[in-house]
Amino acid sequence: xxxxxxxxxxxxxxxxxxxxxxxxxxxxxxxxxxxxxxxxxxxxxxxxxxxxxxxxxxxxxxxxxxxxxxxxxxxxxxxxxxxxxxxxxxxxxxxxxxxxxxxxxxxxxxxxxxxxxxxxxxxxxxxxxxxxxxxxxxxxxxxxx
Length: 145
Description:
Number of strands: 2
Strand order of the largest sheet: 1-2
Structural class: mainly alpha
Mean pLDDT: 77
């Protein structure tokens, strides 16, 4: 008996190797999978330290706006309500700027850096809804007097 490598193909001629055959320049690539690019950086999100002051400012502003309107606190109610409305609008603007900074956009508007122009109908809708909300708020505060 000699010690040496065995020729397995002679021992079992019916067996075919499924692992891939070798060609003169390497293994045959029967199934080529496309390469996928993966982003290694984490997704940019609003952190709690960014959200907390915005939420607190919005809550204080909306309470300042709501209480004089609900309970009509005499002559100073309109001033307090308008100040509350101003603080609420400042908080909303601060929140929008923070969201824009991390890459969020308004629905219907293209993402930042896409190079697309926003649709004028979407912008007109946003302006109309904002105008109606401001008109209702001013009308309600004006009714306090």
